[in-house]
Amino acid sequence: MERKGQIKVDSENLFPIIKKWLYSDKDIFLRELVANGCDAIKKYQSLCLIGETEDDGIKPRMDVVLDKSNSIIRISDNGIGMTDEEVEKYITQIAFSGAQEFLEKYKDKTDADAGIIGHFGLGFYSAYMAADNVEIETLSYQPGAQPVHWESDGASTYEISDGSRTEKGTTIILHISEDGKEFLDEYKLRSVLRKYCHFMPYEIYFSTTDEVVTNEPKEEKPINNTSPLWLKAPKDCTTEEYEDFYRETFTDMNLPLFWIHLNVDYPFRLKGILYFPKQTDKLQVMPGEIKLFSNQVYIADNIKEVVPEFLMLLKGVIDCPDLPLNVSRSFLQNDGEVDKISKHITKKVADKLISVFKNERKDYESYWDDISPFIKFGCIKDEKFYDRIKDIILYKTINDEYKTFGELPKQGEKVYYVSGTDEQAQYIKIFKDNGLDAIILEHNIDTHFVTFLEYKESETKFVRIDAEIGEALTDSESAADTKANEELIEIFKNALGMEKLVIKAEAIKASDTPAIITVNEYERRMSDINKIYGNMFGEASKASETLVLNTASEVIKRLPELEEDKRNLLCRHIYDLAVLSLRKLTAAELEGFVSRSVQVLGLI
Question: Which CATH superfamily is domain 476-518+542-604 in?
Fold first, then answer.
């Protein structure tokens, strides 16, 4: 038998769900109630614009008043207000949106949707996250309207009676519950207002009833900035304004390097400013902070669906009224528009970088050390981003020059690089003394970036400066004495007693260097990556090393002539010096080095 019926909702069961699960953070109640007040003001202004009512000339404002002694917070606006019937309709029907109804009613007469925030009809009930009893005092703008009072303790019942308000608008009175006592702290309440309401479109004033009253007139100042810089056209903004806004928003005294002002009206509405901050740590990528807004109402920080992960290293604000927010206005619903917005932001960032490179290359080079980790991270995360900006990626050389990929110093198909200017100083000196160049890749992210580059630029091989002795550093004109070289290698093998150590002899163009150590490039990379991830692939095996004896060194040439004991001591000392040029000695190695150094001094 087929039957039809109407689903019933029991408010007694619904309220606990709203209080516990609707919003991710309890403090969001303040955002919702203040945003509702802004909507009420916007509605009144819209009606005035289309001639539905006459503007009373009163400046729009909201007031948040803390009455700590009585555990009360009052949130007032001087907006459209409500009649008895409207209170019954909008407040007592959960999930009935007055904002949506207003937009539908006046959709052909006003563009109010450009500023109306509410959509779901649930924001008011967020009040019960912090209050166990809520009152409403409201008076409609309509001529002859009577003030209305509404009250409910969050159960299934409410009371409506005559109100006491004398001016149009609405006051929400929150009787704070035991669970919400933290919001009775003035500092806490101010910080929540700053977090969620700092850029709301109408002036918000905060006060407490416990303030000392004096005979001097009190200078009122709104706690918010109703005209954030992102609303202005980029051509109308000055450098000073951009820097002041950065300080105001992020309380960062380090000025940003440069910024991107987003101003899009089609195919979606999006405004914002993205700042490239100065990196204070040259080895670690410092996290950024991108604040997401909808109609000047703060939504959340670093929503990865809108802002690609690599852009999270920037600081900035993005205001996009077209974002498909979920019912709690804290997260996004899955929507194709979100992906379009994300891709557009990425494209604008790439366009800005290309523009700075082409028009202000000297400035771009001065920024590079700070922005390179961000750009490299972006390339690894988004190959399309790399394809867009690959020609403006710079590489700093050991000669303090900045070069693009096409300008890189190459030896055949190889590009030599340095991962630590201090640790590889000896190798750098050899390169410089021979008129060779190498690039510096010493940030932690470069371990991954080198591998990424070889994948994208497959015809080029990146080799660390201590990985091998290239042809450019060996003396091809010096005839190799194979027998003498074999004798040298055997001398060192016997003196060192290290079976796994590979020993070679070559004429290196650095006569003052008796020997150097090279490290297998592939094995070292694998070891470095494993260490970055906390040895998640097991204990990293040590990359194999090769001791290269420099047959062009007078010290090496004279070794075979020495007595065996003295020769063995010097062989070990030469090896120690080569290790010192490569890395720090372990405690045991350092102890042995000091002991042998004393013995070497004894030979004088």
Answer: Heat shock protein 90, C-terminal domain (1.20.120.790)
Cα separation, 317 vs 272, in Å, equals 5
Task: Reduce the DSSP state of residue 233 to 3 states and report it.
Answer: coil
Q: Check pLDDT > 50 for residue 248.
A: yes
579-588: long-range pairs with CB below 8 Å, 24+: 579/517, 581/425, 581/426, 581/427, 581/516, 581/517, 582/423, 582/424, 582/466, 582/516, 582/517, 582/519, 582/545, 583/423, 584/423
Query: Would you place residue 540 in the very low, low, confident or very high pLDDT band (cuts 50, 70, 90)?
Result: low
| Architecture (CATH level 2) of domain 11-208 | 2-Layer Sandwich (3.30)
pLDDT digits (tens, 9 = 90+) for 376-409: 999 999 999 999 999 999 999 999 999 999 999 8
Contact assessment for residue 41 and residue 59, using Cβ atoms and an 8 Å cutoff: no
Rounded Cα distance, 138 and 146, in Å: 9
For the chain, give the mean pLDDT: 84
Assess whether the region 234-384 and the region 476-518+542-604 belong to the same CATH fold. no
58 backbone dihedrals φ, ψ, rounded to 5°: -80, 130
Q: Cis bond leading into 267, ω under 30°?
A: yes
User: Which residue in 79, 144, 167, 155 sits closest to 118, CA to CA?
Assistant: 79
- What is the reported pLDDT for 58? 93
Alpha helices for 290-360 (secondary structure H): 336-359
> 402-403 and 395-396: which strand pairing?
antiparallel
Residue 301 has a pLDDT of: 82
* In the chain, domain spans: 11-208, 234-384, 476-518+542-604
Mean pLDDT of 149-171: 91
98 token code pair: 């007055």
C-beta separation of 488 from 556 below 8 A? yes
Element (H, E) at 521: helix 521-532
Residue 323 has pLDDT above 90, yes or no: no
213's CB contacts (< 8 A; 6+ apart) are: none
Q: Which class in CATH covers the domain with range 234-384?
A: alpha beta
Instruction: Give the per-residue pLDDT at 324.
Output: 62
- Give the pLDDT mean for 321-328: 59
The structure's pTM equals 0.78
